[in-house]
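Hello again, I could really use a second opinion on something today. I've been staring at a protein lately and its backbone has me curious. Can you walk me through what the tokens say about the fold? Take your time with it, there's no hurry, and the full record follows here:
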Amino acid sequence: MQGPDSPLSDLIRLERLASQAGVALADLQAWIVANPPTANGPAGLIAITLGEKQVDGAPSGEIALVHHVDRKLPAGWLNGPAVPATVHVAGKPIATDVVEWQRAGHGASFAPLVRPETSIGNRFSSRGTLGAIVRHRASGEIVALSACHVLGKAGDGPCLHPARDDGGSPIGHVKAWVEDSDGDAAICGLGGRSHSLAGAHSDIAIQGFCGQPALGGTAVVMVGVASGFRYGVVKGYRSATVGAAGGRTLTFWACVIVPDPRYPPQTPLTRSNDSGACWHQADGQGAPTGWMVGLHVGGATDGTESYAMPAHVLQARLGLEPAGAMALSPAGALPFAVAARDGAILRGLPDPAGPRLSLLANRQPISIVSRHGDWAAVDLVGDGAIDGFVFAPLLKAHERPLPGFAR
């Protein structure tokens, strides 16, 4: 049964308030979609949502089109048009309300803009996280990426953004999906809706997919609609079993992520509605870099681990690429660097007797393509190709040594 503060009870209340105003909830949602924030609109407008109008901080019992702005200003200070007191929807006057964005809580359920880190689902009322806006190489279309058990499969009808329990509006249909031993992922079209490549909370867009399994100890970060920011460390790769659509289970080869000990306890690490969120490589401050390590699919029942579909597998199976300009490398976000005062020798083979190619300077950023015993195959320019081999104890991950080696 839904609690008094559940998304479903909120939706029922909004439906009742809309009915009292003489309009259908669908009419109000359609108005929001048809009137996205624009440069010619009210100054500082970020999004429009549905809610109950507040008067002196108390609910008024009246449905309202809530306008979220950067900052509330006196009318005389505005450089552009002000938000009107009422707008007409289906022939009925509907009140507006204006709130500052930072006071609006964790996201705007009815915002017309389709963007990562917001809720998404399908008509069967699943609810998950829109992980990324990417390009489907085969069709050239810009699509939304999430888990298959969130979006469904072709023939399941249009997907909903936000999710149904958040009052969702239809967007496009599922174009491709994976639900097997490789993982659980799907993409859907945007149905002509306005979109942003940047996450609603991190403001980071996907720049690339890590082309190889992430090395154990790599710091990662995720933003899910249930948990918000979550900070983890790649533990390794192994078979994992998670729940799938229709009450089934799915066993796949997963990237296993555990809580990052540098941050306060995160219990559980992830929750069910986080499914479909992207795990990014994290920079030295724990912020997402735009380089995707995996797609969150599920977690251990005790909340101590998260299981993600590896990014390089997902990219290959669904044929994806970044929707925006792709960086040449994870750049200042490269997770590794030389950590030897006198530098590290780059060799042509993973052997101390291998041919010497060059000397890498201390603190030079690099990418690790693969491991060969105590040696790391490294990429110096970010194109995914191996430029040589370095003795792994001479490298560090961010400000930490590689697992198993002392600083």
Observations:
- The radius of gyration is 24 Å.
- The first helix runs from residue 7 to 20.
- The longest strand covers residues 228-243.
- DSSP finds four helices and 28 strands in the chain.
